[in-house]
Design a protein that fits this description.
This is Low affinity iron permease family protein. InterPro entries: Iron_permease_Fet4. Pfam families: Iron_permease. The structure is a single chain. With about 130 residues, this protein is mostly helical. The protein folds into two domains: about 100 residues; about 30 residues.
């Protein structure tokens, strides 16, 4: 169990660092420079299949791996936001029934949203009558 937690923490640290690094302008510029260098070298390699395969394979591998890294980072960010919202609900006059609604299915969320819209409309009408 401890080894699993350690591996999980290492991946969390790694994915956070990669997600942060990949979102910086310098990373975008570096990627553009690499593609320009690759394009400029085309004539030297006769625009061969190997030359094309280099960028195709590289971008495919990077894209495939980035999906998992960014999803991990996004999942943790989402959980943190939900925890913060839950804390705000608990510490305010809001209804505690809203804690954990992110786990509802689509139909339950739709019904809840409609109910809230009706409540908001009723409150607006009551405020106008005051």
């Amino acid at each position: 169990m401890a080894a699993s937690n350690r591996q999980h923490n290492i991946f969390d640290i790694f994915s956070s660092a990669i997600a942060s690094w990949s979102g910086k302008p310098v990373t975008f510029v570096a990627a553009v420079v690499l593609i320009v260098v690759w394009g400029v070298t085309g004539p030297f390699f006769g625009f061969s299949e190997t030359w094309q395969l280099v960028v195709n394979t590289g971008t495919t591998i990077i894209t495939f791996l980035m999906v998992f890294v960014l999803q991990n980072s996004q999942n943790r960010d989402g959980e943190a936001v939900q925890a913060k919202l839950d804390e705000l609900i608990l510490s305010s006059q809001a209804a505690n029934e809203f804690i954990g609604i992110e786990k509802l299915d689509e139909e339950q969320l739709r019904k809840l949203s409609e109910s809230l819209q009706r409540r908001a409309k009723t409150l607006d009408q009551e405020a106008e009558n005051v």
